[in-house]
Amino acid sequence: MAGGEGKRKYRKLLYKYIEYCYYLYMDRSGKARSNLVPLPYMTPPTASREDGAPRFDFGELDASIRFTSKNDYPSEHRPLFNDQPLLHEEFEVFFVAAGEVSWFIEEGMYRAEPGSLVIFSAQEVHKLHIRSNKRFERMKLLFKPDSTRCFEGSGYDLLACFLDRPKGRGNIKKLPQRRILELLGLFDKMGKACASDAPEAKLLKLAAFLEILVFTNAVFGESDAGEVPADLPGPVASILDHIAKNLSGDLSLETIARECGISVYHMCRVFKKETGSTLHNYILYKRVAEAKRLLDEGWKPAQVSGMCGFSAMSRFGAAFKKVAGLSPSAFAKRKSP
Q: Is the separation of the CB atoms in 113 and 175 below 8 Å?
């Protein structure tokens, strides 16, 4: 949907949907009501009341959307990021407002200048690396992809920019000034809604969430946003390439160092310096990411263990639970009917 007319049409549909869901669920006294019938262009809410009437669960939807902002100075005693790589089931929208940072994404390192919008789908291994002690400011939106399902009837794919690209590629866009101001306005709406305890706060949060996703899809579809080139020193590029090609094989530090022609000490030192992550943690998260993909495809945990380079099922189970928060078997069953 392109052009101003398309955006107006979608926004009109969006607010009609939100208004409808509100009156479907609540009457003026705050009590649930169920005497409305879904309009033909709307996807009915997925949950149902015991009497069979449709119900829109704002509480569940609200809990699946998390917004945070940060504005501070990094220091040795108060780090502003986690040393571990990230691998989560949520989708992520991350805006760099200030600071000198890079993103380590899958097999690449990318600088994210102030004004950069960064997105991640589930299963993309990523790691924020703050490169200086200058002021760092960011806004971050995390959400479960299921939270967009009730809006599929609009004919607009809210997850297109997250899914319609190769894994670990096209994650960062540098925004022009007009787009930066527009996005900051949307984040301001989101922040105020999250901080409010007014009765309409959850609706305003939902509206801001949907507008941010529409904005993000538009930005990643614009040719003037510009891709950010990879920024990797030679040794680290060789290390990442070897790991990517040998996830099921021997990835001991000695083997990697020998294949890349450098000492173990120098390899670990340069990797940590350039990525902000230890080599051991990166290998672990990459293997678990691959395990998640295989489990989603229907492979059995016992098969996946060997396919991802784990020497024993017990080690696979412990590593998987450390990263994913649940066992391989539980992960495989999470989408079962």
A: no
Separation CA 123–CA 106 (nearest Å): 10
Give domain 234-333's CATH number out of 3.40.630.10, 1.10.12.10, 1.10.10.60, 3.90.180.10. Answer: 1.10.10.60
Q: How far is CA 316 from CA 244, 250, 282, in A?
A: 18, 15, 15
DSSP state string for 94-123 = EEEEES-EEEEETTEEEEE-TTEEEEE-TT
Q: Is the pTM of this model over 0.85?
A: no
Contact predicate 75/91, CB 8 Å: no
For residue 71, the surrounding DSSP H or E stretch is strand 65-72
pLDDT tens, 168-180?
Answer: 889 999 999 999 9
Express each pLDDT in 209-249 by its tens digit: 999 999 999 999 886 545 555 666 778 888 988 998 999 99
Q: What is the DSSP string of 273-306?
A: HHHSS-HHHHHHHHHHHHHHHHHHTT--HHHHHH
User: Which of 3.20.19.10, 2.60.120.280, 1.10.274.10, 3.90.1150.10 is the CATH number of 65-225?
Assistant: 2.60.120.280
Residue 65: Cβ-neighbour burial (10 angstroms; 0-12, 13-18, 19+): buried
